[in-house]
Amino acid sequence: xxxxxxxxxxxxxxxxxxxxxxxxxxxxxxxxxxxxxxxxxxxxxxxxxxxxxxxxxxxxxxxxxxxxxxxxxxxxxxxxxxxxxxxxxxxxxxxxxxxxxxxxxxxxxxxxxxxxxxxxxxxxxxxxxxxxxxxxxxxxxxx
Length: 143
Fold this sequence. Notes:
This protein has about 140 residues and is mainly β. The chain has one domain (about 5-105): Immunoglobulin-like (Sandwich), CATH 2.60.40. Helix content is about 5%, strand content about 45%. It is built from one helix and eight strands. Strands 1, 2, 5 and 8 form a four-stranded mixed beta sheet that branches. Strands 4-3-6-7 form a four-stranded antiparallel beta sheet, with no helix packed on it. Strand 6 (about 75-80) and strand 7 (about 90-95) form a beta hairpin. The protein is elongated. The N and C termini lie far apart (about 75 Å).
């Protein structure tokens, strides 16, 4: 298969995309023969971005006409790791020749308690109707 290049940039944010995550480790890889092979490793800048990564892609003509034996794109994977956040992996990102694709990765923070996005919290709820605090002491059949 003859190839030319496509590109991926990665933008890493948190809070639903509102805040950039600087210093996140980004790995771009592809699955070649059953093994994931790392092609690029970056650390995001203060705006949460990586520079464009030049990646092999098939000829543009493969994506412009039907009936081609080869697809018009090549698939790549992106993995993001950053302290204080759950790791995130995006699989099978299509890269087309001559196109810059921006892969947005939104990280979810974890806290010291291990709960997603919030510290452990037990709400102050009233006891349920069948609790001993409401005078219920034995199992009764519902009629």
